[in-house]
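Researcher: Hi, I'm a grad student and pretty new to this. My advisor asked me to get structures for two proteins we've been looking at. I'm not sure of the right format, so I'll just paste the first sequence and hope you can take it from there.
Model: That works fine. Here's the first sequence with its structure tokens right after it:
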Amino acid sequence: MLSLMLMMAAVQQPALCSAAPAEVLVGERYRRGVPSRAKRLSGARTVRVMWPGQLVTMDFREDRLNLRVDRRRLITAVRCG
């Protein structure tokens, strides 16, 4: 019973994002594997890639890392939310 309660508590706890460690990605070219690396660095549960001109929702998620990418496929910013 205790192990079930601990598992439920772990599921309910969101993975908080910390953008600072993922800032090493700024200036790198976006390619396959970057989202999983960004997740590992930031501790985020999800990664959203934001391309120039792309419409995105304005919802804030403390467990998401946003990667802003320019037309040359270079990462220009990393932010949580």
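Researcher: Oh nice, that was easy. Here's the second one.
Model: And its structure:
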Amino acid sequence: MTAYWVKTPKWFKRLYPRIVTWEMPADEDRSVYLTFDDGPHPDITAYVLDKLKEYNAYGTFFCVGNNVRKFPDMYQRILAEGHSVGNHTYDHLNGWHTDCRAYTGNIMKAAELIKSKLFRPPYGRIRYSQLRRMHKAWPDWKFIMWSVLSADFDPEITPSQCLENVLQNIEPGSIVVFHDSQKARERMEYALPRVLAYCQSQNLVPRPISML
């Protein structure tokens, strides 16, 4: 039995304040939003970027500050190719296990390298006290969660199940989570090109999340 939802339930979203975004509006362009957590990684992020370019698709990369420090050229490639970036803390901290001051300090450290007002908490785990503190300090930031989880991080599922997690749930406005990380590599590299091909066949348009 998994400890996560592939499709985030509506009732669960209502537990969070309105400042948290779980999906985007379903527009006439049939936009969807593919997101990639935990990079950049010199090889895996390059694979993602190559596949996105192949399908003329754009995504949003929630970057770990320490990885940006280690792989600045890959981070710059993400930006140069027209994708969005977001802050994912400096050390991939679990908000449930970190006090507010340390948590926001870690985000500020990442913000020195990641010039973005988009933020996603690692593991999706953040306390209300942390959200309130962050919203007070940075009222123009956007807190991005997701509506569809590929579960590419889960070694207990097959690459084909990872793919089905997305194909069975993606729809206009969906925010989908993948990971450009070693742990997720096998499942993500199988699923991503097939998801992109599906989007193309269904006239779904992968776009980056922006502040607009």
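Researcher: Is there anything I should tell my advisor about the second?
Model: You could mention this: The mean pLDDT is 96.
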